[in-house]
Amino acid sequence: MTNALLTREQYVAKKAGEWAEKGARFKERRETHRLTLTKVAEALGISPSTLRRFELGQPVRSSNIIEKAYEMYFDLRVHAFMCAQDNAELVADYLVDQEIGGTGKIEIRKKEYTKVAEIDTGNPDLNVDIAIELCEKSGGKYFFTY
């Protein structure tokens, strides 16, 4: 068994499929979160063209560092979203709990879990509209849970 050194071209050809798959996963994640290439590139401290090449699976210097920074960026976004969601729940006067599936029945409770209303029109969208209207008429802040 010999350990032959690969030329740059051979190495790129060998890694191309892996890089393309990895780049496509990151691009899909970015687009799912409706983030622009420029916004993410700026957050990572790289040029948009470098990020574009990374997402296309093309050779990029420090691709391992870019990959780790990309992962950390999304982890921080998820953490920030969860903290904002927790904060929204903390400051809400009403918790609006909608049943998933079925009729989409809604229960509105005060923070101390006292039931204020139950809405079940058979139409999930109408249930949501009515719940929002009730909460807004009361002047209270509300938070949807599922």
Walk me through what this model shows:
The protein has 146 residues and is α+β, with helices and mostly antiparallel strands. The protein folds into two domains: 80 residues, 434 Repressor (Amino-terminal Domain), CATH 1.10.260.40; 54 residues. The protein is built from five helices and four strands. The chain has a four-stranded mixed sheet with strand order 3-2-1-4, sandwiched between helices. A hairpin with a 7-residue loop joins strand 1 and strand 2. Helix 2 crosses helix 3. The longest helix has 29 residues. It is elongated and about 75 Å long. The model has no long low-confidence stretch (mean pLDDT 84).
What's the structural blueprint in terms of helices and strands?
Blueprint: H1 8-32, H2 37-44, H3 48-56, H4 63-91, E1 94-98, E2 106-110, E3 115-119, H5 124-138, E4 142-145
Parallel strand pairs: 1-4
Antiparallel strand pairs: 1-2, 2-3
Helix pairs in contact: 1-3, 2-3
How is this structure best summarized?
With 146 residues, the protein is an alpha+beta fold. The chain is built from five helices and four strands. It has a four-stranded mixed β-sheet with strand order 3-2-1-4, with helices on both faces.
Tell me the radius of gyration: 24 Å
How would a textbook summarize the main sheet?
4 strands, mixed
What is the helix/strand order? Answer: HHHHEEEHE
User: Which fold name corresponds to the CATH topology of the largest domain?
Assistant: 434 Repressor (Amino-terminal Domain)
Q: Can you identify the CATH superfamily of the largest domain?
A: lambda repressor-like DNA-binding domains
Structural class: alpha+beta
Helix content: 55-70%
